[in-house]
């Protein structure tokens, strides 16, 4: 009977605003920022020789990493811990760092590229972060237990 009552209860929706905080923030490797969620991607960019004899630009994902530590919103009167934020609609991280590392050129490299039908251009690294101290508003369902 208790389960039947629970299934008919309307979910409790709340809005919480505050500044992002954590007891154990992540130190971002490239941007130097401290954050609670960090995503890093690295893409190899290259030109490839197609059947028509021309070069077309392409890229391949080499690395996709994500880290998250327990974090909360603090409004000055207290803290509310946030869970499952990455799956929320409209949630986007700030670009903390975006760099392109050139592959460099050499005679050996150029010969290998020609034989493989590829010209390596370099690696694009992007670090996205939810920084400590960011103002954020969360709308969500209260969970008990």
Task: Write the SSE topology.
Blueprint: H1 2-8, E1 13-21, E2 26-27, E3 34-49, E4 55-68, E5 71-74, E6 79-82, E7 94-102, H2 107-116, E8 118-131, E9 135-141
Antiparallel strand pairs: 1-5, 1-9, 2-3, 3-4, 3-8, 5-6, 7-8
List keywords for this structure.
MUL1-like; four-stranded antiparallel β-sheet; 54% strand; 145 residues; mainly beta; elongated; zinc ion binding
Please characterize this protein's 3D structure.
The protein has 145 residues and is mainly β. It has one domain. Helices cover 12% and strands 54% of the residues. The protein has helices at residues 2-8, 107-116, and strands at residues 13-21, 26-27, 34-49, 55-68, 71-74, 79-82, 94-102, 118-131, 135-141. Strands 2, 3, 4, 7 and 8 form a five-stranded antiparallel β-sheet that branches. It has a four-stranded antiparallel β-sheet with strand order 6-5-1-9, with no helix packed on it. Strand 2 (26-27) and strand 3 (34-49) form a beta hairpin. The model has no long low-confidence stretch (mean pLDDT 87). This is RING-type E3 ubiquitin transferase. Its EC number is 2.3.2.27. It is a multi-pass membrane protein.
